Description:
Blueprint: H1 6-23, H2 27-38, E1 43-48, E2 54-59, E3 66-71, E4 78-79, E5 86-92, E6 99-104, E7 112-116, E8 124-125, E9 134-139, E10 146-150, E11 159-164, E12 169-174, E13 179-185, E14 191-199, E15 202-209, E16 214-217, E17 227-231, E18 237-242, E19 250-255, E20 266-269, E21 275-281, E22 287-294, E23 297-308, E24 314-323
Antiparallel strand pairs: 1-2, 2-3, 3-4, 5-6, 6-7, 7-8, 9-10, 10-11, 11-12, 13-14, 14-15, 15-16, 17-18, 18-19, 19-20, 21-22, 22-23, 23-24
Amino acid sequence: MLVNKAPLLFFLTAATVLAGVCSALADDQTRRLVESLSQVSHCHRPTFSPDGGHIAMICDLTGTPQVWTVNARGGWPSLVTNSSDAVTSAYWSPREDWIAFSRSPSGGLNEQIYIVRPDGSELRQVTEGGKTENWLNGWSPDGKYLMLASNRRGGTGMDDYLLDPFRREFVVDSVNEATGSYFDVSRNGRFALLERYHNRNDEDLYLVDLQNHKESLLTPHTGNAKFFGRLAPNAQTVYLRSDIDRELSAFAEVPVSAEGRPGPMRILTSRKDGELQSAVPDRQGRNLVLFWNVAGAIHLTFYSDTGRTDEGRPNLANRDCRRR
């Protein structure tokens, strides 16, 4: 069995260096050093308010990851939640001043989902609690539903749901043998984009008609393949990351008829020197930022569906934005 020794080597090296530094310091200096190291904090998972004026995020400034908000122009953040249980995800509603978040009791299993006002008021638990496990994946574009996976059915898999958090009503479900996620919901509320996990290296995307709960496979393939996708605003195109018959993932699209029938997948763009990691749309869904991994550096490509070239290719604007 091959074992990755890099993390262990890093830990042992860091511990050796710290021990050497501490041995050379007086006891009070050692104490201050350890206290300073313990106060290093981490913030992640930023999410904008509907007007873009504020950002919600998860920070461990109090020692336990909680929801905080901060003015988008800068400043010291304000604490929204205050619990001994760690917050694991947070999403600001795209329409109203509600923040949905998930919390892990005692840092373990059985995650539960809540909504709260940005000032910390009107905290509500919207899942049943108990031994159920719930994974939050954000809001629908209209702010009416939360997208989540849950084992509330009692089966062996994590089924997918749209949850009305204000009525605590589970309105849609997709049953999975293993796990899956709703990635997106169309602007008109007609369709949902479902990812279904088969094994570690194999998954599929489905278009779910929310009126009749019919599922249409978007990614037929043989062998292993992995995908990630988003719906265009009119739900007549699914944009996705695909590695079907490819060594490096590319940016692709699947056309969808008004009745929800998918057409063949088409590669929009790819790179010989890197692969697509993710595609992030703006709130209107018309512009996407494509993140490419090129030899460990992140390159950005901006895509807009507002126009195409004479050959029918999408408009793609490259920017020399790199981050290691």
